Amino acid sequence: MKKYTILLLVITSFSMSCTEDKLSEHEFTDQQIAAKNLAGDWGAAFNIVAPDIESADAIRLLTLLFTVDENGNPDKFLSDGSLSTFGNKTGSWAWADGTTTTDVVLTEVGPITSFTISYSDNIDTITILFNAVNATGRGDAIGSYQVSFQRL
User: Fold this and answer.
1) Phi and psi at residue 32, to the nearest 5°
2) Domains in the chain, CATH or no CATH each
């Protein structure tokens, strides 16, 4: 009987520790889940809506990289292919507030420092919306942009 009691205690403690591990793996906030889904390279811009043809052409080669830290929180942001949008610099990204999973703010990049993002159901495409100076860098007219990207 004593053997069975000890065996039962060992099995119970093992199953409890497995349950605790599984729970801790899934205790992510909506923002952490969204950040992990967004992490990676995005490019091959399509469905570009811009104030003019020149601006659309200027952002056609734009690529974006989002990273997350070891806890699944937003970390680094890098853009390439369009100097006049994000400056082809490495910066950081964050959610605009403690509840959003669609409003992104950027630091150490520019002139664009924020945008709104939406995701496809299977998270293989994203669409960003932002207001900016003409993407060709000429003129001072502010315009609204919408650009979709594929996961690379």
Assistant:
1) -65, -40
2) 30-151 (2.40.128.20)
